[in-house]
Amino acid sequence: MPQRILYWFRNDLRLHDNDAFFQAMANDAAVLPVFVFDPRWFAELNSIGFPKTGPFRARFLLEAVTDLRRSLQQKGADLIIRVGNPALVLAELAEDIQAEAIYASKEVTQEETDTESDLSKRLKPLNIDLELVWQSTLYHVRDLPFDLARLPTVFTQFRTQIEKSAKVRALIPTPTRIELVSGVPAGEMPTLQSLGFTDDIVADHRAAVAFHGGETEALARLNRYIWEKGLIKTYKETRNGMLGEDYSSKFSAWLALGCLSPRQVYSEVKRYETEQVKNDSTYWLVFELLWRDFFRFVALRYGTRIFKPSGIKHELGVKWSHDVELFKRWTDGTTGIPFIDANMRELNQTGFMSNRGRQNVGSFLVKDLGIDWTWGAAYFESMLVDYDPCSNWGNWNYVAGVGNDPRENRYFNIYNQATRYDEQGTYVKHWLPELADVPANKLHLVSNLSPVEQSQYHVGLGDSYPLPVINPNKWAKAEKHH
């Protein structure tokens, strides 16, 4: 009888460049591909009143798993779907099919590694191995030119060392046929309703990009961005944009669930450089993938510290505010600061926000409102389609000044940022139509409008648009002093 292997799909929802899946199928093993929806992912976070996984991310995940199932079926296999505690479900299934081992992608953050340990404990008495394969980064953890304990604390040092002495491994071939362990009922895909979401989520028609989960869509986006539209050659100039589909690659959502492999992106960039053009922009896309790697290695090195208010710096002296009302003004996009509100409303209505927006709303929550940054990180975790624990919590550590930022006390002057990145106010007006008639030069400090101007521009401060939660004039004053 050939070997039987249970393959546990996690954040690697693809068949291309999937090392763990490839290893599971070695020696002509029959595999049972499984995906387990863990109800804990969708639980309410009671203290602050929103679910751990919000509707946009849940829908994207359902689409990605559905797409993977289709791809497996086309290759003669199927995807077994279960809902429950992964450690319990997988150990039972592995015992049922008399598997020799369970193969899966190795994760680094606490909830995921807790599940790995739990599963491992359950498999021991059954004499079934658990093989975890590292495959989430561009550079393999074993190819780092330093010990993990000596991971540079500053990104630039990390990047310099990697670029000098590490190589990106070759792509793993995509399987053509898959031998399935037969006789196991495939199981129904859950729906948004069965996961606890009440109504169907309709993304706002103003969304920058219609995110659809899955490897098929991911590879199509990659091809469109690099080859069909050639947008990669101007990526560095456009990446700070705020509106539209094409100012940045938008690969992050597919990378987060592993619908797209970072090495696949890298290999397409390299091919583009050979066949078309090599410039700062093509390099910059790889540079962004390196940031993603960096945060993953930081999470691996510091463990649970990235989730604690004191951060990886262990800053125990900082006292954060837990003002629920103020936090709610931030999450709802009703702070009275147009640039902040526009970004938060885009997030609430689409599950996406630009990188520039994230830095600003993060800095505002932490530095201007003094609110516990872990609340902001948890809100992003719930809302963002492209949520990835390492990048999200790593970036928030950074913004809050408890991470590995070489600059002490990094602070964003929101007015300066708004006038620089949304000079004409087109982004703000896109998401705050109630400010449509306010001229661009008055928009970002809309709270300064006189009663006459308010009636002229059809804005009622404190009525159709909220009064600001802090005095924004401090930013304009700071501007003048520079």
Tally of structural domains = 3
Classify the secondary structure makeup into a structural class.
Answer: alpha/beta
| Name of the CATH superfamily of the largest domain | DNA Cyclobutane Dipyrimidine Photolyase, subunit A, domain 3
Major β-sheet strand ordering: 5-2-1-6-7
CATH topology of the largest domain: DNA Cyclobutane Dipyrimidine Photolyase, subunit A, domain 3
Strand content: 5-15%
Terminus-to-terminus distance: 76 Å
CATH 2nd-level architecture of the largest domain: Orthogonal Bundle
Q: How many separate helices?
A: 20
Radius of gyration: 24 Å
Helical content class: 40-55%
Element order: H for helix, E for strand: EHEEEHEHEHEHHHHHHHHHHHHHHHH
Outline type: globular
Mean pLDDT: 93
Poorly predicted runs of 5 or more residues: none
Record field, number of beta strands = 7
CATH class of the largest domain: Mainly Alpha
Biggest sheet descriptor: 5 strands, parallel
Walkthrough of the structure:
The model has no long low-confidence stretch (mean pLDDT 93). The N and C termini lie far apart (76 Å). The protein has helices spanning 19-24, 55-74, 86-96, 110-123, 155-165, 215-228, 235-238, 252-256, 262-275, 280-302, 324-332, 338-350, 355-368, 373-383, 389-400, 414-421, 426-431, 440-443, 451-456, 473-481; strands at residues 4-8, 30-37, 44-45, 50-51, 80-83, 101-105, 129-133. It has a 5-stranded parallel β-sheet. The protein has a two-stranded antiparallel ribbon with strand order 3-4. It is built from 20 helices and 7 strands. With 482 residues, it is an alpha/beta fold. It folds into 3 domains: 4-135, HUPs (Rossmann fold, 3-Layer(aba) Sandwich); 137-171 and 210-303, Serine Threonine Protein Phosphatase 5, Tetratricopeptide repeat (Alpha Horseshoe); 308-482, DNA Cyclobutane Dipyrimidine Photolyase, subunit A, domain 3 (Orthogonal Bundle).
